[in-house]
Amino acid sequence: LNGGQGTDTLTMTATLAANASAIGFSTTSVEKMSVNIIDNDAAAAHTMTMNMLNANIPAITLLGSTKTAVADGLTLTNVAEGTVVEMAGTANMDLTLTYAAAFLAGTGDAATLKVNGVTATSADDSDVTITAGIETLTINSSSTASKLGDVVWGGAALTVTGDAALTIQDALAATANTIDASAFTGGLTVTTANVTDATDVDG
């Protein structure tokens, strides 16, 4: 798919009554992608998995809502360096990101997640999981307050930016020992679990 000139958005809607996957696709000159998850089976949790290996899309937005405790979700694999993923107005929706091996080969790898108006009925909802290899995670919370469940990335550093209140309901992993909220103008609610070394909070 070639988007040509201008700013182009690829929109995908997945109606989930079972797990589903998109094995892979390629684009040229497509700047944004929106993935809308529709929960078609409120009694069970399902996941849409997408391989982004050759997608070449720098901005991806997750939309949709699902039932508490049986949350549907989106899993993106082979996410490229510099890709900004956003959860926009999602309710109880889980997100899992696995970055491309070439990007994760070194140290100091950083990723950015944007949240805007995310809601979570309980701490088991709206979980964000970033698989191994990301040392610094930046969460930009803007426009409307957001509430997440668990946030897992395996690294030591969390940076929070933006202007809208952010709540992370589950305690961070003990590996997280630095929180930088110096550029954040909203209210931050977070619990640390590092009992060996004091967590350094800036902001």
Quickly describe the structure.
The protein is mostly beta strands and 203 residues long. The protein has one helix at residues 101-104, and strands at residues 9-16, 20-22, 32-39, 47-51, 59-65, 73-79, 84-88, 94-99, 110-116, 128-130, 136-141, 146-148, 151-152, 157-162, 166-168, 178-180, 188-189, 200-202.
Low-pLDDT residue spans? none
- Strand order, main sheet: write it out: 1-3-5-7-9-11-14-16-18
Radius of gyration: 17 Å
Helix count, DSSP H or I runs of 4 or more residues? 1
**How many angstroms separate the termini?**
43 Å
Class from helix and strand fractions: mainly beta
Q: Strand content of the residues, in percent?
A: 35-45%
Overall average residue pLDDT: 90
Helix amount, in percent?
under 10%
Tell me about the largest β-sheet. Answer: 9 strands, parallel
